[in-house]
TrEMBL record:
Main location as per UniProt: membrane
The name this protein goes by in its record: ABC-type xenobiotic transporter
Molecular-function GO terms, alphabetical: ABC-type xenobiotic transporter activity; ATP binding; ATP hydrolysis activity
Domain ABC transmembrane type-1: residue ranges: 266-546, 893-1173
PROSITE patterns given in the database record: ABC_TM1F, ABC_TRANSPORTER_1, ABC_TRANSPORTER_2
Transmembrane segments: 15-37, 93-116, 128-148, 265-283, 303-320, 377-398, 404-423, 491-513, 878-904, 925-949, 1027-1045, 1121-1140, 1146-1166
Family to which the UniProt record says this protein belongs: Belongs to the ABC transporter superfamily. ABCC family. Conjugate transporter (TC 3.A.1.208) subfamily.
Subcellular location: Membrane
Residue runs in coiled coils: none
Protein source organism: Carpinus fangiana
Recorded GO CC terms: membrane
Catalytic reactions on record: ATP + H2O + xenobioticSide 1 = ADP + phosphate + xenobioticSide 2
Amino acid sequence: MHSAKGTDFLFKPVFLRGVSGSFHLVLLFVLFLSWVYKKFKVGRGEGPKGRNGWSDEGLVTLLDWAVRTLAWGALCVSFRTQLFNSDEPKYPFLLRVWWGFYLFISSYCLVIDIVLYREHVNVSTQYFVSDSVSVVTGLFFSYVGFFGKNEGTEDTLLEEPLLNGDSTATNEAESNKSKGGETVTPYSNAGFFSILTFSWMGSLIATGNKKTIDLEDVPQLDPRDSVVGSFPTFRDKLEVECGTINRMTTLNLVKALISSVWKEILLTALLVVIYTLASYVGPYLIDTFIQYLNGRREFKNEGYILVSVFFAAKLVECLTKRHRFFRVQQAGIKVRSVLITMIYNKGLTLSCQSKQGHSSGEIINFMSVDAERIGDFAWYIHDPWMVLVQVAIALLILYKNLGLASIATLIATIIVMLANVPLGKLQEKFQDKIMESKDRRMKATSEILRNMRILKLQGWEMKFLSKINELRKTEEGWLKKYVYTSAMTSFVFWGAPTFVSVVTFGACVLMGIPLESGKILSALATFRILQEPIYNLPDTVSMIVQTKVSLDRIASFLRHDDLQSDVVERLPRGSSDTAIEIIDGNFSWELSSPNPTLKDINLKVKNGLRVAVCGTVGSGKSSLLSCILGEVPKISGTIKLCGTKAYVAQSPWIQSGKIEENILFGKEMDREKYESILEACSLKKDLEILSFGDQTVIGERGINLSGGQKQRIQIARALYQDADIYLFDDPFSAVDAHTGSHLFKECLLGLLSSKTVVYVTHQVEFLPAADLILVMKDGRITQAGKYRDILNSGTDFMELVGAHKKALSALDSAEAESASESTSMSVEDGSMASANEVVQKQENKDVQDGKADDIVGSKGQIIQEEEREKGKVGFSVYWKYITMAYGGVLVPFILLAQVLFQLLQIGSNYWMAWGSPVSQDMKPAVGRSMLIIVYVALAIGSSFCILVRSTLLGTAGYRTATLLFNKMHFCIFRAPMSFFDSTPTGRILNRASTDQSAVDLNIPNRVAAVASSMIQLLGIIAVMSQVTWQVFIIFIPVIGTCIWYQQYYIPSARELARLVGVCKAPVIQHFAETISGATTIRSFDEGSRFSGTNMKLTDAYCRPKFHIAGAMEWLCFRLDMLSSITFAISLLFVISLPVGVMDPGIAGLAVTYGLNLNMLQMWVIWNICEMENKIISVERIFQYTCIPSEPPLVIEENQPDYSWPSHGVVDIRDLQVRYAPHMPLVLRGLTCTFPGGMKTGIVGRTGSGKTTLIQALFRIVEPAAGQIMIDGINISLIGLHDLRSRLSIIPQDPTMFEGTVRSNLDPLEEYTDEQIWEALDKCQLGDEVRKKEGKLDSAVSENGENWSMGQRQLVCLGRVLLKKSKVLVLDEATASVDTATDNLIQQTLRQHFSNCTVITIAHRITSVLDSDMVLLLSNGLVEEFDSPTRLLENKSSSFALLVAEYTVRSNSSVEN
């Protein structure tokens, strides 16, 4: 191989390019020789004039420049195509030789220039400059060629020795993948040159071109920018400012924020000043330039010096602007992440009253909207004072040119700025209202999404959708006002420069100040620069206002009360033998209310005692536990706790993530302990059924687990903590009888036998095992003592136990006795045996499905990665967006108005430049009054065009936003339940808030800006080419390069923008979870760990954000450079033309426009990129308008009879159900019939398919095979609403919505007040509601938090009583209710639903015993189906075993 290398390079394109370059060089060399020879020959004299006033020397020089340009161009192209893709360590030999040679020639030329200058030969400055530049570039290239190396790609993988096999290669690739996220951004150790030109972004942008960027490709932030590094200092500064956070004012917050980014603020302020000065160099020199073109030369080579000053000013302007923008964004990212962390930490410590004032949706808005907005304010931070500086300098320049007329300019500018004030005020007011109404809408949306399952079961979703639409209507009202106010504002701003110039020139005419074209153009260029600060002023004003609103909102949130930290006295572990002590405790959730929640609590619990707490619904049992945790505000008294604590809440709180992570909850893995806890919580079997075992990813709020599984995972989490004190809030209610007793035995009596345990329970059978029983009533402990003692002493406890006995008496006692003797032993074995069989079957089945299983892989997880579109945003998205409103009719009119505006603007400036004389001694082309009248007419015309454009744009944008909102929400509400199970609420909310906001307020302007900036750019190019068509020679390659740069940059920028969207959802979701589980997190003292996770997620969100900013400036810097060069070259063309060839006024006009060239070129590209990034919001909303929807709600031709179902016979035939196409069957061919008008109980272990059967009955999941008939009608053939509105259900988790008692019982408003009161009385809530002030209109807070679990359950019962359906389903409805209330519910149902089909899923055997039929499910199949008496007669039936075991448990408790 190596021998061939010698000649190999002949066939490489690099060689060919090199040779072609070298031929050019020879040509250059000949030219140089002739040129030098010319220089010597000419000596002092002027060269002979050639044709058309060009000297031979001029021609040869021009040719030399042209050839050089071509040669370097060819080299650039070869560089791009060859070198960057080659992996050679050095540049090709020929290339290096050429560079050396180039340096030699350039130095030679420069030396000769100097020699000639010494000998006083007149050498043109042009040669001096060009040769000096050539020497510098030659030096640079030679250095790169001989000492640098080509870093095209450093692919070590390609140089791996082949003999090692590929193991090392793959390992390396693996480690590289993980390393991506570990590397710190190159920015943190970039050199001066790299930072100056943003070259440190190069590697990431190059990566983006090779592949789709993922989060691991984006490097970590510099520690100074990351929230982990910057938050502690910020917090300290804030505490220094205001002592405690609760006393914080907005001012303190602002000071602390500023002190955390003061370096960036000072640096950017300096850059702003330099930028402002540089930007006015152009307008200042235009007059001089025009006089020069007119033939007035002040000194030798004035032209070249003018051009170089123009060029230098452009460079400085470009550098300062780019670095200012980058630094402010850097500061913004820092501020945003510090605020997010602040809000998050506050959310963890909020007290309960403070929390009731804010729904979780509102708190999330603080984080997703307000913090975001304050971060964005960094863009505007210097604008207010920058405006003043710019106006001052502008007035000085105008004063120099136009004298006293500049006072008129000042007045006009002030008028324009004042015109803004009322508009700004209005905009701010509307913006506020939009935010308020959006908060309300988001609050409702998040509540509805959380409870979507209930809405679907009841058939209420369309009613609630109309509720959301109502809220949105209000929002839209404000939005419309806001949009039209904005249209007015933009009219004022586009018209501003025209208005100011009309006033100024008018004043000149009135005062008799002579108007020369140079002065006019200088003034126009100045107005053009003034336009930007004036144009941005309303933006800045509204940004300041919005930011202040956001700062106030955040400050007031951070001021809220935290939990009282002194409620509980913590004693160190082992320092006392008393675990819990409460002395004279009075506690109240609402400190303002006259009667406290808990009164006169005295309690002393020794280490290692088991304490049971019982009492009726709403007696304060859960509050007692909360007060031990320190959650309930203390009125008086003391609480002491000794040791660490763990808590199991009544409604389970599960984080989304793996099951294992939920159980470990931040602790290290200890296999042995872990396995024993899984065993104790009987989770082993559940984990075997799940396809990924304990690595299964749980959906949000544990959505793919049954209630019992969630509860057991919660218990396992508490056990794993190994705390000293355990607090259980009714943990056995959500699990079936068998599992309940197993948990009680294994956990409370087994693993926790040496710990202090306080447990609330409704199940009397768990009381005898307690060392101390507390009976609660109305917030007091009415009785306390051992089971036997209390039983004989008081009435409250007797009621509870009596109710329990009454339930048990339903079991035939003799039968129970015999059963208990024969089976107490075999129960455990039996259940184990059946479990083993199942596992066997499972395994055999798995062997057959082995292949299928592999393919499923991660698809089997319920929560899929958030879909992000990859690659380009399709044209179809833009097209759909543009044509959505009125079929796109308005678009051509908007474009036409913009084009007319541009033409009239150019026309008016052209008119002024052409119509006024170049100098005072020339005769003007038209009279002064004529000059001004035409100018005013054109100005009015152009302003009118802008008004039309803004109004039409506002209309189209508003209409589109409305249509998108309605479409998306309709599709979400009609989506099947599986969509909500697999999509975290955060994702849907993100689209309804952030993306919808973008569509409401941003995107129309972004899309319009692309069109208008392109039209402006074309206008400038047209004007410049009018003067020097030669400009096109440069324009075409420069624009080509610009487009190439933009194409090179877009893939990375687009993916980074998408990553920002994808990384934002986890921050919000983690926050939402934290708020709902704050009590649990605090009880385990895990706050700091959660805070850490939040910081990590925030940094992951800031990483792509920071690099987007870098990429943007990387691109802009390069484009700015290109357009500055274009501008400089076109100026060179202009000055190299002989005097008199062209009108200096028109040439000046071209220069005036050219001054804006780099800004506009940038503006076009920036707008395109910004639009691409923002349009992603539209794309994300479109994704949700294509969700497959549920079957139709009503099928006209198949509507069941009004009285259907009249008998209520439910006939199930070979029913097979799976939750998703890629998941296993849950019901595997079920066949049975529930007779009409009878009660059927469904029992079975957790996960046997009970809940799934009910979901199939309501068609929440559609059957994979088989059918369900009700009264002979196949339910799959009728509309969903027809089906669901005729069935009733009391669901597993009782839900209430924010609103009133009435709206909770009767959301569809179908019943009268009398009927509602009647239902309330039937379900024993009537008196409770009569006590409240508002009666039926008394408020229900979010999730019904101000009602106890049991009361919420009774409300659900009330809904059913109102509906009076023929078929009623109870899904574990008795789980969170004490036995007495349970009996009451049972009695109510027996009384009012005696002739209905009642299907009960129960965990308390007693609630099934009085059923007519019992269905026992096991692993998705019918194991037994018969009447309870018959099943009990057969001693070996599974049902008999279950009952026997329950009786053993209960009898032991009663007899104790």
